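agent> Task received from the user: take the single chain below, predict its 3D structure, and emit structure tokens. No templates, no multimer pairing.
agent> Plan: (1) validate residues, (2) run structure prediction, (3) serialize to tokens, (4) report one or two observations.
agent> Step 1 OK, no nonstandard residues flagged.
tool_call: predict_structure(input=
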Amino acid sequence: MKSFSHWLAQRHPELGNDLAKAIDAYNQVFAPGSNPRGNVRALNEGTLRNLANTWQKALFTYKAEVVDLTYARLDAVAARTALTVEWDRLLHNNGKLTFSNLDSMKRNIDEFSKQFRLKKGTMAMWEDVPMASPDTSSDGFIPIIGEGFSTSYTMDVPDCIRYSGTTEVEAASRKEFERGMPGSAWIGLLVIAERTGLPNNMIFLLPASHMEKHVTAPHKHEQRGLSTPIPQFASAGHQGGVVMLIKQRRMHLGTCNRCLPLGTAEPDPTTAAGYGCIMGFAMVKAYDAVGHQWAFTSQTCNVSATGIWENPAGEVNRLRTNGGMQLPTDWAVAIWRATRDFKGMIVGATYQVVSAPEVHGNVRNVVPNASSGHPEPVGMRGEPPRTSKPSGLIRRKK
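)
tool_result: status=success, residues=398
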């Protein structure tokens, strides 16, 4: 595989110049290694948008011209999975933030390209290691965005509201997600039935833009008839999603966790994310040889949703103790169960995973298919089922 450095210099020097300029502009505003959040993002939206857009163009042009050609020539499922997993890890800067350092990013991508040269003995192969399912294990395996599918999700919050009821997915959200581009980013929101008086927990999915620290595939929303992606350059995407869904009257909050003063008819869309009745998460849609990925994190929604609420006599509910950004395991598993079997439109996948009707207990998400007799326990389209305890998780061999 041609290295990213040589490809950039020989084929697209203009992209190299654009990257250098975008990174220089970013580093003039933000300290090295910083992770801009909140209002500082809004104040520097143009800088963040430019860096994100330039990296997306460079990385997905390289993928189309170089990476995809190698992928197409790989016969083994393990090799295709290895290539896709390693590529995906380059797109997400979970704590590394190397997108603000061009030399460092070039080294990372060049190292990736060295692993997948089409020569005997140099292919990095991944073994299929059994992993526990969240259905049966408290530390079960859910593919986390950018983690290389090598970590289990465990986040217990003892004082947080525990999972209860039935979880559904809004029909329009599912339809739009399944029409979306492979590898694209999606904002997820869940309205909690217990805190709203609604009959079921309700999940919404909205197309979201890429970011300067999480580069995902272009949505091509106009060609695919999707709604305009929620921007994430200036502020938290979850806030924009809540405001949009309430204004469109798609999201209903019922009693709003009893946070509204007496006589208030409807919630304020701009403050509704802090009522404690909406949870936030994110997804990246399946692509190539790997399945959907999740991230159960939201500063905007989860701090109040996982917090401790109290109701002084004669007053509205108020947040006594802030929660954390991450969702507890029981809620994460419920979301995973409800969304794992969505169509992934994977290119070149060997395994076709389908779901059986009524197999998820208290999660209502049925995809009828007469050819399937049992559910896939992990939800990764493109990989065979995994059902036992992790043992070293993922290992490589030359």
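agent> Step 4: summary for the user.
Confidence is low (pLDDT under 50) at residues 120-129, 346-398.
agent> Done.
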